[in-house]
Design the sequence.
């Protein structure tokens, strides 16, 4: 499997903001106002969008196939939960601490993952994810095992806004974190570091020839992505005041991969779009058909790939090409 | 010593079953570079077909096996021609999305047709007891499994090594472009191999009902193990899949027997270690 | 500042809770179930049990129409369960919550129940601690400790002195193991060995081999109903443990009616304790099974989860009837805590006013063939068992 085929990326995100991008970032605010009784869902879209973004750095930009990314999400989630249980209830500092723990964990795992073959990395990341699940299950006196940790004492945001059931604080929190991390990620992928990653993904053999330490770059991006996933996990724990073992599970990693590929990997925005579409589609379909919604979701995925490559953003590109060709 | 042999045998039996189902996936991923995550769905449909044949048509278990092989193989050939063929040039990620979508659809359809519960199967009583050889108790069904797979692996190995088809297959796995250049009809080869691989996995699914159970979540539940065998063994390698399946089967069973507190860790730790030491799989092609 | 804000929040939710009582002529019941994924079979039993009750008793109570709203939580996903509960309360304006195959989902919903003052009926989740998490939670199903303790007693009294335990490595498994060990040793029995098997475990043969080596008189088993229990049973028979004279005893999850047919003859003779058997002889059970077949299809056998759904709806109907159709969370819980008794298909059950948990008879059963099919035939019982896990 050649790495070059793996991602469709027509162009680097331009340094300046396009009008479309600005509209994109105003949309969540509009959604917040327009759908006041769906704010919890919106906050979860922000959190999973962040999670998908972290996988995009690893998969879309660095080309590392990871099926165990939930391990880092879970690491962040449990760190935030345990901090809260032991008296550290302030959310923002807890968030940063959880991100740091996940990043460190990611750096350690990267030592196993980075020097492998493509498929090998897939299975090693999968194995790490599955191992983490078993560890969390065994250490049930700390993690609560399969029952998880509930009723976590999370402090109010900025000391003023509690994370209540109406989802207001959760939305503000999720959106703010997502926006900040996105801005940083955008900078990262446009920087020389980001370009080096693209080079590694497209032709790994040439890179050392131009003086790039491939493994070091990959380890760094893996750790950064793990840290971001940890932030997402911590945010979920804090906004819901609970932490379940499913945050580490294989299903979470698999769903994340689907979200990212659905949106289109290697574009940053693909991660966000994929997460939004997947969560909204799953929620609506499950509401219509609680027993069989997976059939319709599967059919939608199959149809999408048959129509266009590169996920939803790829489909949009194909549409744009056809329209511009028609204009000529 | 007797328990060691017993435990090893159990591991070999479990591994044999994994090998039987995973072989098709190994060939698909090695030969056609196609990430077919729907492979588990073919095994699952083999199981459901077997159960339906036995219950609705009253066919005996032994007779269902060749029928399942043929029907699922034919279904595989049709799906390959109609759908998969269009995606050979697609990226691995698109293939993942597509085949996961297919798996979801198959699982939901199976739930709708057969219901979400475990499927009962009535094996012939001759297969359902223990015999004692050299002081060790062996389950007859597992003996049958191991024997079946040994014979099959031998036949396949001979087929790949001695027949013309096998030579063409080996050529295409090593270098598809050169093979096509030499006049081998690579796309026909793909179809036949895919049909064989899916037929085998359907057969494996039917044989697995008594060991692993059968319900509509089978495809996704055991996909991890099939991927494990393929990647550790090296995609495209029959020897590799066999070695990996047996190794992992024995490690899993032995781990759970001797150190049950760490039972679940052993197979994942074993896999990680094997992959770190053999990054391309035990018998994988060095890229 | 934050105190006032949260005060406002609680006040608005309270208003929501009370105004709902005067709203429609419909009373909505929100059922949160794990309908897709590995627990689909169990979730479907609960759903069909609930629907069967509505079918049998009509959908009108005290002049109000009862409407069931089903939500899928997919599997163990506490964050999703919490969000679904919240949305059911604020968007769909349900006046009762119910369902829950799995404990983590039930635990996650507790804060929503408390804050919105919505009575929440647990129709399966069997870990003891759930009812303590919110004063608005009531359970009509069972707890693992409640059925494991009588089994330990029965074993000790019936000449079984040496037992090996095998449980799945998670919360309910640990509950079952702890309760069994405590009660069994208190009655003079000896535990000769214990093993915990991983939740995801395709092959039981190594564990069966360990049991065979230890040569106990009996094996106490708890594994979740489904491929685990079927896999265990087949491995047990295949390795000839039954022929070696080792008895198999377990909680009713091992011989769950939903999978008993799939297990086949290897299950014959297994002794279990549980609160419901499809073979239970009573007019209520006969009526229940008849309506259930109309809802679920002729070949589907109801299991203890279906009874949980049925009895959960029974409790809801009783509450609505008692309150004359005007459901207020606090009044509902006051009624429930006044000592409610229900004639269930399983027998008579009551709700303990102190713990809001179910008190019921636990039956000792043996798997036998009746009319060509396998059933759990009750031959003894322990009456009025409260959940020992609470004390």
Sequence:
């Amino acid at each position: 499997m050649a790495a070059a085929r793996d991602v469709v990326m027509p162009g680097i995100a331009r340094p300046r903001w396009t009008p479309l991008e600005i509209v994109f970032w105003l949309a969540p605010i509009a959604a917040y106002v327009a759908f006041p009784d769906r704010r919890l869902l919106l906050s979860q879209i922000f959190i999973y969008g962040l999670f998908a973004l972290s996988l995009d750095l690893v998969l879309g930009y660095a080309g590392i196939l990871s099926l165990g990314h939930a391990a880092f999400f879970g690491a962040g989630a449990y760190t935030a939960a345990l901090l809260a249980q032991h008296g550290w209830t302030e959310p923002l500092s807890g968030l940063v601490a959880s991100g740091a723990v996940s990043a460190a964990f990611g750096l350690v795992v990267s030592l196993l993952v980075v020097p492998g073959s493509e498929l090998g990395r897939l299975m090693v990341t999968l194995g790490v994810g599955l191992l983490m699940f078993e560890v969390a299950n065994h250490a049930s006196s700390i993690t609560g095992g399969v029952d998880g940790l509930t009723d976590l004492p999370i402090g109010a945001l900025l000391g003023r806004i509690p994370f209540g059931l109406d989802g207001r604080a959760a939305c503000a929190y999720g959106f703010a974190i997502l926006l900040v991390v996105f801005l940083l990620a955008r900078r990262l992928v446009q920087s020389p570091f980001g370009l080096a990653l693209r080079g590694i993904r497209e032709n790994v053999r040439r890179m050392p020839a131009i003086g790039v330490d491939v493994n070091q770059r990959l380890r760094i991006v893996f750790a950064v992505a793990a840290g971001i996933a940890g932030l997402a996990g911590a945010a979920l724990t804090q906004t819901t005041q609970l932490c379940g073992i499913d945050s580490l599970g294989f299903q979470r990693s698999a769903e994340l991969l689907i979200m990212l590929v659905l949106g289109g990997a290697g574009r940053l925005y693909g991660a966000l779009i994929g997460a939004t579409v997947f969560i909204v589609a799953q929620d609506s379909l499950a509401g219509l058909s609680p027993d069989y919604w997976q059939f319709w979701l599967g059919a939608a995925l199959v149809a999408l790939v048959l129509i266009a490559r590169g996920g939803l953003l790829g489909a949009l590109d194909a549409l744009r090409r056809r329209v511009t060709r028609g204009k000529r | 010593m007797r328990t060691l042999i017993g435990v090893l045998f159990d591991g070999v039996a479990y591994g044999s079953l994994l090998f039987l189902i995973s072989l098709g996936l190994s060939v698909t991923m090695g030969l056609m570079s196609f990430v077919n995550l729907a492979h588990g769905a073919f095994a699952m449909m083999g199981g459901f077909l077997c159960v339906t044949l036995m219950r609705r048509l009253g066919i005996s278990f032994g007779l269902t096996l060749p029928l399942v092989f043929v029907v699922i193989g034919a279904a595989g050939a049709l799906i390959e021609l109609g759908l998969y063929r269009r995606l050979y040039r697609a990226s691995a990620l698109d293939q993942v999305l597509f085949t996961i979508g297919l798996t979801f659809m198959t699982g939901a359809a199976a739930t709708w047709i057969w219901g979400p519960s475990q499927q009962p199967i009535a094996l012939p009583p001759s297969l359902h007891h223990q015999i004692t050889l050299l002081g060790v108790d062996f389950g007859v069904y597992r003996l049958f499994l191991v024997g079946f797979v040994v014979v099959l692996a031998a036949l396949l190995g001979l087929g790949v090594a001695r027949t013309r088809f096998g030579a063409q297959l080996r050529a295409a796995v090593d270098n598809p472009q050169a093979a096509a250049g030499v006049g081998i009809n690579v796309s026909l080869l793909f179809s036949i191999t895919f049909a064989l691989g899916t037929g085998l996995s359907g057969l494996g699914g039917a044989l697995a009902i008594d060991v692993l159970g059968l319900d509509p979540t089978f495809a996704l539940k055991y996909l991890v193990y099939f991927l494990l065998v393929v990647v550790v063994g090296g995609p495209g390698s029959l020897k590799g899949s066999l070695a990996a399946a047996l190794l992992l089967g024995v490690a899993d069973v032995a781990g759970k027997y001797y150190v049950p507190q760490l039972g679940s860790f052993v197979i994942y730790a074993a896999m990680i270690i094997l992959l770190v030491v053999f990054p391309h799989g035990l018998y994988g092609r060095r890229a | 500042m934050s105190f006032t804000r949260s005060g406002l929040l609680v006040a608005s939710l309270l208003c929501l809770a009370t105004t709902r009582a005067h709203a429609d002529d419909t009373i909505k019941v929100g059922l949160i179930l794990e309908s897709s994924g590995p627990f689909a079979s169990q979730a479907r039993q609960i759903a069909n049990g609930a629907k069967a009750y509505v079918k049998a008793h009509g959908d009108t109570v005290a002049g109000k129409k009862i409407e069931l709203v089903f939500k899928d939580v997919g599997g163990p996903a506490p964050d999703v369960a919490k969000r679904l509960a919240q949305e059911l309360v604020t968007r769909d304006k349900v006046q009762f919550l119910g369902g829950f195959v799995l404990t983590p989902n039930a635990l996650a919903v507790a804060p929503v129940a408390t804050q919105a003052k919505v009575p929440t009926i647990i129709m399966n989740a069997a870990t003891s601690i759930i009812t303590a998490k919110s004063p608005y939670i009531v359970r009509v199903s069972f707890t693992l400790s409640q059925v494991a303790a009588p089994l330990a007693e029965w074993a000790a009294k019936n000449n079984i002195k040496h037992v090996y335990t095998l449980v799945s490595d998670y919360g309910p498994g640990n509950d079952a193991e702890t309760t069994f060990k405590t009660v069994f040793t208190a009655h003079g029995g000896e535990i000769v060995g214990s093993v915990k098997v991983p939740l995801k475990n395709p092959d039981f043969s190594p564990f069966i081999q360990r049991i065979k080596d230890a040569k106990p008189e009996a094996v106490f088993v708890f594994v979740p109903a489904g491929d685990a229990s079927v896999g265990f049973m087949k491995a047990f028979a295949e390795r000839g443990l039954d022929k070696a004279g080792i008895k198999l005893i377990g909680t009713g999850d091992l011989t769950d009616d939903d999978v008993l047919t799939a297990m086949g003859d290897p299950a014959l003779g297994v002794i279990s304790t549980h609160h419901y058997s499809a073979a239970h002889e009573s007019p209520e059970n006969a009526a229940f099974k008849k309506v259930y077949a109309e809802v679920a299809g002729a070949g589907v056998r109801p299991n203890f989860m279906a009874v949980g759904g049925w009895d959960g709806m029974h409790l809801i109907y009783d509450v609505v009837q008692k309150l004359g159709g005007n459901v207020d969370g606090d009044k509902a819980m006051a009624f429930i805590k006044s000592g409610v008794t229900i004639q269930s298909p399983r027998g008579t059950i009551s709700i303990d006013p102190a713990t809001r948990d179910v008190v019921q008879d636990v039956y000792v059963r043996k798997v036998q063939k009746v009319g060509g099919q396998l059933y759990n035939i009750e031959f003894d019982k322990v009456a009025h068992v409260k959940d020992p896990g609470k004390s």
The first helix of chain C runs from residue 2 to 22. Confidence is low (pLDDT under 50) at residues 6-12, 14-22 of chain C. Chain C touches chain A through 43 residues (CB under 8 Å).
